[in-house]
Amino acid sequence: MATEKPERFDQVDWNDLSRSGRFDLSVNALGMLATAIPLVLLGLYEWQFLGRRTATFEFVGLERNLETIDYFFVFTLLLFVWFLVLPLLQNPRMTRYYWEEFKRNRPAVVSLVWLGIVFVGGLLGPLLVSAPQQDLLVAYQPPVFTSVVDTTPATCVGEVIEGRCHGTWQHPFGTTQGGKDVFTMIIYGMTVTMQIAFITTTIVAAIGISFGTLSAYAGGWVDEVMMRFVDIILSFPTFLMFLLILYIYGAGLGMFIVVFSILGWGGTARYVRSKSLSISEEEFIQASRISGASTYRVIRGHVVPNVASSIITQLTLLIPGFLLAEAQLAFLGIGDSSVPSWGQLISAGRSDLSFAPWIVLAPGIVLFLTILAFNFLGDALLDALNPEAEAENG
Amino acid sequence: MGFGRYVTARVLWAAVVSLIIVTVTFLLLAAAPNPAVQRAATQAALQGGDPAAAAERVRELRGLNQPLHVRYLDYIQSVYTLDWGWSQSRSQPVMEAVTQALYYTVQYSVPWTILTIILGPLVGVYSAANMYSWKDHAATAFAFFGYAIPNFFFGIILLLVFGVWLEVIPIVYDTGVPVFSVENAIQLAVPVFVLVTGSIGAVMRVSRNESAEFQNADFMKTAKAKGVSPLRAYAYHVMRPTLVPLSTTLVGQLLALFIGSSLLVEVVFGIPGLGRLTYEALLAQDTNLVLGTTLFFTFVAVIGNLLEDIVFTVLDPRISYDDR
Fold first, then answer.
1. ipTM more than 0.90?
2. Which of A131, A185, A262, B84 is the most buried (most CB within 10 A)?
């Protein structure tokens, strides 16, 4: 695709536009390749040459280790940058239009800011803040601006006024029974949240879009069989299946993401199918067919981009469900207890609820706000990207 | 296709779906080492016996040394004849454990479902009738709040406030009280409230958006022109068409919530229902019981979806049977 769109017809550089071969790569795809290849090489290097316990970046003297899930996370982030953020920058006019539409929904703007904080916190937090340390001496510190009876914390970090221990900025959200800083743990939880949000969404989108468009284009009995398959996927009780898998094999965060995304794309596929069926009736599709475009090119160049804008909404509204499921499992304490997620923290603070409610309240409220923000964002995106839906739904 | 044939086809399809799910559970189990076998081997090793021989003995006892297809047919047969085996952790048949637990689950599920089904559309239509007024905004805020707050977190908070601080409700669920008594109503009020706030939001949103469409429809104008009272007009001309699209999503959503939330809410409030049973079976590594509760929930989901589809076609004569 041309990156700079001329305003007038007579200035169109036809050579630029006619690069329609299958192997001509756009800037986005080139950028994606250029950044993904080092990542894959790094992954191979770690897999082949490094021991299990060696940190990935030891060759440059860094302590930081990358898990498998981190590779996938970085990969989906790259996809996000090259195929969502960059296209928005490439089309400033459309971006301005979307922004104008989006801005009218004030809760959604606030939600976007909040999700931005969670995103940046999750991405950079673990690099800047060191992991929470166990320190029994500072257990049960109250959050800043609050106070508890002096006997609750082992030693009070802040001031003790009239027998009440006051919170300090050193531990803005207080500390847990092990003396871990709740604020730091919440930041580490942001990473988990963002990993779930990005990786599951990418897998769901990839399977859902390809399955849906394929089904719509194949038609006939292939379509029938594929949609029946979607029916089965949809009627699978995901949460229970995961419990069963967890019970039989044991499962960490990676398994959670795999199971929930592999059983979670049914709705997306159905949606994409109906959407691409209606789009393929449009005249511009017929026009490009008459001009000799191949089916692949019609799907890749016209159907998928048109479907994509409307499924972003659908995907945004899927994320809260995944986050909730993870929190529930972590709360039950039957998942991988080493994953520092918010649900884990809620579960850890439950026994101290009556005298140290902040351990449960802080992560619970953050989780609540994040789920709320995704819902608001999805609603607003629906209005911004899909003006017709707004008219229909009032 | 007539109605009879449609129902037959739909029932057959539900049977196929349940069979596929049951098969997947079998494959999952068959591909993994059985915890009972491992336990026996560990025990034998600890007592100085031969772990391999002990494992083999348990394997033989449980029929695990037979070829896969024999075990599969056996499994399918016992699943569908409701012969779900013996629960070791509870020393009773799985079926009995499930029925006992169901007794407690039903006690809060029935009021919860009824409240959601009645209140959800009512509030939704009401807020559509007063669209963009403060009442609508309040209802929308409540819907979003209920939708976004994790049920288990909300339950813990309410338990803290009303159970620990205000001491209005008991902290520990008492199984001794009769079903229809004030004590039981009090101890179930908070779990039901938590579940209703969780499920009502989606119902309210859908019915609000759907009924907005019918408010200015021609038949509504006619009704108003004839002098039909607003209450009757809304009840007959807005509520009824709203319920049709609502019913497509309602059952599925309620079931999904039922499975996930009942587990959490029962664990939080200490209700010895199906969710707790599943949870305790997981902790006790009681394979038969884990499988039994999982299958039970699965069958509830499959049958619920089946009923939903059939009721939907009965309710809405515009749907042709060939489309689905």
1. no
2. A185
Residues of chain A with CATH 1.10.3720.10: 103-132+181-393
- Closest Cα of chain A to B19: distance in Å? 11
pLDDT of B111-125, one tens digit each? Answer: 888 888 888 888 888
How does pLDDT run across B249-280, given as a tens digit for each residue? 677 777 777 777 778 888 888 888 888 888 88
**Contacting residues of A for B149, CB less than 8 Å apart:** 368, 371
Fold of the domain built from segment(s) A103-132+181-393: MetI-like fold (1.10.3720)
Which one of A327, A393, A394 has the shortest CB-CB distance to B150?
A327
Distance CA B201, CA B131 (A): 16
A 354-373: CB under 8 A from B: 354, 357, 360-361, 364, 367-368, 371-372
Q: Which own/partner pairs from A343-352 qualify as long-range (CB within 8 Å, at least 24 positions apart)?
A: A343/A367, A344/A189, A345/A176, A345/A182, A345/A185, A345/A186, A345/A189, A346/B152, A346/B153, A346/B156, A348/A176, A348/A177, A349/A176, A349/A177, A350/B156, A351/A177, A352/A140, A352/A177
CB contact under 8 A, A368 and B150: yes
The amino acid at A269: A
**A324–B153 C-beta distance less than 8 A:** no
Is the pTM for the entire model greater than 0.90? no
The DSSP result for A133-150, as a single string, is: ---GGGTTPPPBT-EEET
